[in-house]
Amino acid sequence: MASPCIAADDDDPTQPFSSPIGRDHIPRCIDEAEANRDEVHDGVENKDDDVTLSDSSDCDTETAEPNISYQNNAVTWKDDTNQTQHADGIHLDIYLDTLTNTSLFKLYCNIHHKGSKAKGQKHTIFLFIHPESVRAITLNSGRSAGPSSSKPSRQTLSFSIVQQPSLIIPKGYVLESKQRSKGLLNAVLALANVTDFSIHLNSSNITIPKQTRLESVARIFSLNFPHNRPLTNKRCANLESLYGGRGGEVANLSRDVGKAPIQADLPPSYDEPQRGQVSNKRRRIDYDVTNDKSPTVHDDLFKSIRSHLNGIESRICTHIDGMEGRINTRLDSIEDRLKQLEDKVSDALDVDRDQYILEEIGEQLDDCITGVKIESEELFKAIDDRADMTIERLEQEVNERIDQLGEEVKDSTAELVEESLKKKLVNASLRIDGSIFLDI
Q: N or C end of the chain: smaller count of CB under 10 Å?
């Protein structure tokens, strides 16, 4: 009923991938690196492609085929009013073990936690789709989803399930998101309440083997193959292994979703001056000219500024997420190369390995892992600093523009009032009794 996602909390240590520095590698160090890596990442990317082999949640990938992951996909579904809704930035992991006839599907994304004071604090939330709840999965090739897509076609996986996906969150976590990821959170909450949706896969580098794996998934879960369907893989669906061992839980939407206050705070009451008190305030004169134009100008200005700022913030977040994805891809590629190195070393060395060589390899791996962690932390810090500086500069420019427009509105109002008074004085007439009559 649910879909798998990877726990990628920012409060966990940076994933300790090693780099290809020597020709020697030992299983012990690789196992430690993989164990630490599972705390923050749920998929091992296969070279530079968007499709990656998934080893999330302690799943055994050696006997699984296919076992793939797609990053940054688009998802479409129908809402209660039968209107098509669209969301980008949703990741998909597919685990299918043909030997044990087990499977699991995971949809996931990163949400910036509203209650966190740390920069970049994120939590991964999952949608688990268990194979027992799948009615059918179809694979189609069609036009790209979303108005911003420039690709002519995309592979689309359409899910039809009999039970809504399970929303998985960290234990004790309240689903409240910062503004930058509120759209993603709303999309996941909407998907948790539907039984039919389509995933438009990010297939920019898709190859024939990857296409074959997708076709295998669609064939096994097609309407023409109702018998001997895979069962849920217990190890992949184990919630206790998520979030760096802290564990996850199935969200109770009525309890775990943050709610806005029922009534906003009322403005302070206005106390009228008591009888006998003298007020130094002058009565404001209402002018029809300013009342007709000033509010409209301000409303249009604020709407334009708000829309512009939202667009800038969205582009900054997309750029940061893209850089993070490229870094993770590079680290995953390094780990693949280390695994290949391990196989070569295991074949070349005798069973009785020299202890000195093992210690030397271990020290080199530790140095490499530490160096990668430091470089990654410095890069993410630089990205956050640039984003903060950009936002502060934009806010300052907007405030200056608002002040400038306010002064222009005041000057325009004064000129209109002065011109109106001049016209009325010109049209004034002098009566016989000596009084002056203003023709208003």
A: C
